[in-house]
Amino acid sequence: MFDRDAYKLNEKFMTVKSLNPRLVAVLLPIYTVYTVVYLLMWDYAIIFETVFRSTFVFLLELFILAIGIFAFLCVALIIKAGLLSVFSKEKFNSLKFKIISEIRKPHCNLKEPLKVGQYRLCLIVYIFILGVIPYVISLMTGNFMFVIASFICVFFIGTDILFLIYLSGEKSDSYVMDYDGIMLYNIYENI
After folding, report:
1. Which of 90, 105, 144, 160 could bond 50 through an S-S bridge, CB–CB 3.0 to 4.6 Å?
2. Assigned domain for 1 exists
3. Mind listing the pLDDT tens digit for each residue in 41-52?
4. Total domain count for the chain?
5. What's the CA gap between 16 and 179, in Å, rounded?
6. What DSSP string describes 57-112?
């Protein structure tokens, strides 16, 4: 276990009580930009063509996209866990996986704190894999169903984007301990 007294660190407990307004404030601009860029690159007719296909093709595409979202989520979570374990002292023994019940989101965190700069890097990689890559695929294919899938992926990283925003004001040499709740963490700073 991490002993803050041994490192002569001050502890700062951080929590966000009302997550929904903040999450909407982060996700709404992203959704707007994603939609506008898609509409500038592709024609409205493609949206109607995607949505008004035969029922069988539409349901098959939905099923394939659900599997794709799950696969992207798993890959992104495994990469985030790998990066977290590379930076931690106890490596993979320090990892914890959980589904956050309040927002039904899979989450991994460590049992020990990491330096804020290292944690930021892990969050940026996770956000890029789950938030940017699916959208780029949707732009390349032009399929509106992929845009919707990228919206769902962005929803899964919404709390991570908020966490990255909150960590932007912290010093890189401070330590952060992320808990398995929504936006609940400790910052340990040098005395």
Report:
1. 144
2. no
3. 887 777 777 767
4. 1
5. 12
6. HHHHHHHHHHHHHHHHHHHHHHHHHHHHHHHSSSGGGGEEEEEETTTTEEEEEESS
Query: Could you report the per-residue pLDDT of 92-137, keeping only the tens digit for each?
Result: 777 777 776 666 777 777 777 778 888 888 889 888 988 888 888 8
Residue 69 lies in a domain: yes
Q: How many CA atoms lie within 13 A of 35 on its CB side?
A: 9
Q: How many CA atoms within 13 Å lie on the side-chain side of 173?
A: 4
Answer whether residue 24 is part of any domain.
yes
Question: Can you tell me the mean pLDDT for 58-74?
Answer: 85
Q: What share of the chain is helix, strand, coil (3-state, %, to 5)?
A: 60, 15, 20
Total-model pTM: 0.77
Question: What would the two tokens of residue 89 be?
Answer: 């002292």
The residue range of the domain holding 18 is 9-190
